[in-house]
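Fold it.
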Amino acid sequence: MLKITNEQVKISFTGHDTFPLRHGWLEKAYYAVEKNNINPFSTDDAIIDLGVGKNMVNAIRHWALASNFIVRTDDGYAHSNYAKRLLDEEVDPFLENAGSLWKIHYELCKKQTCTTAYWIFSFLNTPTFTKDYLELKLQEFAEVHGKPVNQVKSLKADINVILAMYCSPRNSKGFKEEDITSPLADLNLIRKTDDNRYTINTGPKTSLPQKLFISTVVDFWQGQDERAGFNSNSIRVDSLLYGPSTPGRIFALSENELTDRLHDLYNQTNGAMQLSETAGILQIFKNSNNFDSEKLLAAWAET
């Protein structure tokens, strides 16, 4: 399992002003940056341009940054490459496709800065859990990585926000504004049970595009090599399942589904990668003549 050092982890349970991500917010952030890339969220016009209150302006900025839809620069803000593919190149300008939502989820949960979502999709090892259990484990996680409990007073609120973002409201009666669903709820990754517990859906992810899955394998592999300081020629399949920020964890894939998705890897990548088993160990190998990481990383947006 990948060891996370204190320097690598940036604990954060705030920034969203208790608002989960909503439909249309990432697009609003994108076009706000397009209009004013220096300071689009702090100008007097931001409330008017975005059509929301001040706290929601903060939340829009938070989720756009947390999901890598926009990025900070020395001068202000810029669009990420994947956001450009979706909006500028009109791959999915209204973020309606399941593949776009899976991509947003992956970008959000692979980073430690959105700590609650990151922890749930990297470290949670129990089939069912409660809010109290999450609070206890996240307090422990924060303390281990140098953020004392007295500095994380917003933890309860953050847990509520993340669970609301991934769960659809169960009760249609007495509809409240906070019951407005997040686009990520459409992925059906977290379910609320009748006894106020929660469970991660490890069933088949039929709406997860295969090209996106392969691109996240390459992305994780590339990140692992960067941390190790060298380019490896192979990676064990089990390392894609169990460690932090792995595709298996973030997409809540079963071992069978993950290995099934790799079986025809050679043909799916036009010979760039292939699956091989040696002494009972499944590994993915790069074919140096055909392997082009940038091409494989960008293929997620292809139809």
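The beta strands are 70-72, 77-79, 128-129, 190-192, 198-200, 234-236, 273-278, 281-286.
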